[in-house]
Amino acid sequence: MGRQVIIVADVVAVDPANQIVTLKGPNQTVDLRIADQEQFKRIAKGDQVEAKFTQALAVAVEPATRK
Prior knowledge:
single chain; 67 residues; 7% helix; elongated
C-alpha cells in the first residue's frame, strides 16, 4: 500500500556534505536527501519548498505455527 504526499515546508537545515535538507512541515520534520546536485545548490536555509514524496507500507501474512 502506498500514498503520495505533497507538503509545503520550511527548510530549517542544509547539510552540504551529505546533500540533505531538513524540512519542517505542518505535522512533522523530515530529512530528505537531494540526489540532483544542481537542485540541491538552489536550496537554502529559510526557503519554503513544496515537497512530494511517497510513503509505503508492506504487510506479510503467514499461517500461525501449532505448538
